Amino acid sequence: MSIAAKFEIEYLQYLDPEGKLVVKEKDLPAFAKDLDHMVELYKLMVSTRVFDTKSIALQRTGKLGTYASCLGHEAAHVGIGSAMKDEDVYAPSYREYGAQLYRGVQPREVYTYWGGDERGNDYQKEPARHDFAWSVPIATQCLHAAGSALAFKIRDEKRVAVCTVGDGGSSKADFYGAINIAGAQKLPLVAVIVNNQWAISVPRSIQTGAETLAQKAIAAGLPTIQVDGNDIIAVRKAMEDALERARNGEGASVIEAVTYRLGDHTTADDARRYRENDEVEEARAKEPVKRLRAYLESKKVWDQAKEDAWQAECDEWMDNEVNAYLETEAQPVTAMFDYTFAELPEDLARQRAEAISLESKEH
Amino acid sequence: MAQITLIEAVTQALAYEMAHDDSVVVLGEDVGVNGGVFRATQGLQEKFGPLRVLDTPLDETTIAGTTVGLAVQGMKPVAEAQFEGFIYPMMEHINCHAARMRNRTRGRLSVPAVFRAPWGGGIRAPEHHSEANEHLFTNVPGLRVVLPSSPARAYGLLLAAIRDPDPVIFLEPKRIYRQYKEEVPDDGEALPLDVCFVLRDGTDVTLVTWGAQVKETLEAADELAEQGISAEVIDVATLTPLDFDTIAESVSKTGRCVIVHEAPKTAGFGAEIAARLAEECLYDLLAPVQRVTGYDTHIPLFRLEMKYLPSVERIVAAAQKTLAVS
Questions:
Q1: What is the pLDDT of residues B63-115, one digit of tens each?
Q2: CA distance linking residue B33 with residue B46, whole number of Å
Q3: Whose CB among A283, B7, B37, B158 lies 3.0–4.6 Å from A260's, allowing a Cys bridge?
Q4: Distances (CA, A) of B326 to A120, B58, B288
């Protein structure tokens, strides 16, 4: 018997859970040698966490609908967002705020969406303005990214489409379909599996029999890597490599970022029903913000005073965002009709008029 | 000027629009070298290349999701489901994304895509190749559901569908793909997507139909004429958003209505038209509205399928029934 094909999956890590480098300084990627930039990345990870904490508090006090927390995903998300260029397109699922804040989504827009108002998806700032909105149907965004990548290839544009999907989402036909067509057509796509170990209550161990999620890319003929998803240097480096390949016409890549969902799936979930606290605490010890802070402090570019000042700044920022959100009045009843089609069909215009007349009776 | 069939009109419309708009692309299974299993995309790949006429992997989910992505990036994709019975895996992307992207983003993003599919029975095809499922799309907000029933309407409506800024489900009655030829000038003139077409004027009864049943319905009108009954025939063509006014006007004139479609009866689109007539035209009606449809069964394999599809006899009998009342 001979071997028809052979593969192995590389694992990438620069920073261990204590914030110590596992490589020599000289082997760090260029962006990581720029400590000012690393401080910027850290600051966004912190603001993402402050934002997340604020969101949960809003939900618990009845000021927000169901909300999907990103606690523990900060390195993965900021690593993804910070590696992309403005002209690239991002197709997220529904908790990648760190990536989205980097690309110009405003916290008030996130609140607006989870607060029950479609205007939250009308991102005002570029480059987020040309990104996809949150995609609730699992993994469907992967194919939207693949389609975007196909458009870039047809038009010969040096742009890349990036999608993120969870460990659960990587079981779905849409994920396989996206990496498959990306391989077949050499599309400029980067598909990142943010493996946070839990698809609501279903653990990674019974999501698939595959040893890694990264190896799913092998079947699609794509380069792939598993990275420590709590190590922003590893995530960012893998992203930069994959984006460069895509931009150079070398096709798509898959990245598995291994992290942990420290919070509930959403505020409507109670993770204590299905997982042990010991496991969560063990994961918490490896969380991403703490380790980057330890690293930056060891490099003397961050300290408690800076931390306090930035936390205060973030608090003020988020308070402003929350206030802007809370001050927003609900849309008029006509809003549910006005974006169904580019032009309101006559038949729908009659239903719209009926809704308006009911409104005026109520008032 | 050349006489062409309905399917040649589809090809002609695709070729016209691709030649005049670089953003139009065609994608699906076997649409490239093979020109589609019915040859709807015949010759297009030679003219426009393998990227603009793309043979996709054999996965309907991939076709639909990729189509959404292309459209959001400003392309005008025309996706083909090889048979309408294969469209189910596409529905998540059609219903959850294509139809709601504009609404979800308050108009920031949109999906100007066309999803084409050979539709309906009557060609002695295997299982799953004969479905008529327009009703699965007609109550999805944000979609236009269009069924052409002649070469000229296939050409004009497909051009309109591609140019429309919103997603269109374009269901092609494959039973009449090659039924007859007519002159269809390749002039790029689109037909409106917001009107029903009155194919024959009449005064005694209104026959409302779409797709391949236009054939039997017109034949029924001929037969009724021989019996001295004057039937008006309406091809709905664009089911949603519905031009109900044209139907209401006709039924108010004739006082009688028979709705003909090959999809199953219960909750078929005929039920919607009948309900609207009851809501808005009841006092103009001289007889109960009749429906001639497929039965509430799966369309049988082909030895029985012609007994399932609405026949001229059934349409004539239903019309006579409306006339027997008064």
A1: 999 999 999 999 999 999 999 999 999 999 999 999 999 999 999 999 999 99
A2: 8
A3: A283
A4: 58, 56, 11
Which residues fall within 8 angstroms of residue B192, CB to CB, at 6 or more apart? B160
Please give the CATH architecture assigned to the domain spanning B3-183: 3-Layer(aba) Sandwich (3.40)
- The ipTM value here is 0.97
Residues within 8 A of B (CB atoms), A 105-134 only: 118-119, 121-123, 129, 132-133
Q: Which CATH architecture fits B197-325?
A: 3-Layer(aba) Sandwich (3.40)
Is A174 touching B (CB cutoff 8 A)? Answer: yes
Distance between CA atoms of residues A48 and B10, nearest Å = 51
Among B residues 184-203, those touching chain A with beta carbons less than 8 Å apart: 194
- The answer to which of A121-135, B11-25, B133-147, B312-326 has the lowest mean pLDDT is B312-326
Nearest to A173 among B54, B61, B71 (CB): B61
The answer to whether B3-183 and B197-325 have equal CATH topology is yes
Q: Is A149 exposed, middle or buried (0-12, 13-18, 19+ CB in 10 A)?
A: buried
Does the beta-carbon distance from B66 to A143 stay under 8 Å? yes
Asked whether B186 and B151 are in contact (CB, 8 A), the reply is: no
Burial class (CB in 10 A: 0-12, 13-18, 19+), B163: middle
Query: A133: which 2 tokens?
Result: 């909105």
The answer to whether A265 is a known catalytic residue is: yes
Of B73, B103, B245, the CB nearest to A340: B103
The answer to whether residue A285 neighbours chain B at the CB level (below 8 Å) is no
Measured between beta carbons, the chain B residues lying within 8 angstroms of A161 are 69
For chain A, what are the domain ranges?
A: 11-331, 332-363
CATH 3.40.1190.20 holds for A11-331? no
- B residues 262-281 closer than 8 Å to A (CB): none
The residue type found at A69 is S
Whose tokens are 């039997």? That residue is: B216
Give the closest-approach CA distance of A285 to chain B in angstroms.
38
A178, B62: Cβ pair inside 8 Å?
Answer: yes
- Tell me the angle at which helices B244-254 and B269-280 cross, rounded to the nearest 10 degrees: 60
Q: Out of B20, B97, B128, B129, pick the active-site residue.
A: B129
H helices within chain A, ranges in order? 30-33, 35-60, 74-83, 97-102, 107-114, 140-154, 173-185, 216-219, 232-247, 277-284, 288-298, 304-326, 335-338, 346-362
Residues B151-192 have pLDDT tens digits of 999 999 999 999 999 999 999 999 999 999 999 999 999 999
Q: What is the DSSP letter of A207?
A: T
Domain ranges of chain B: 3-183, 197-325
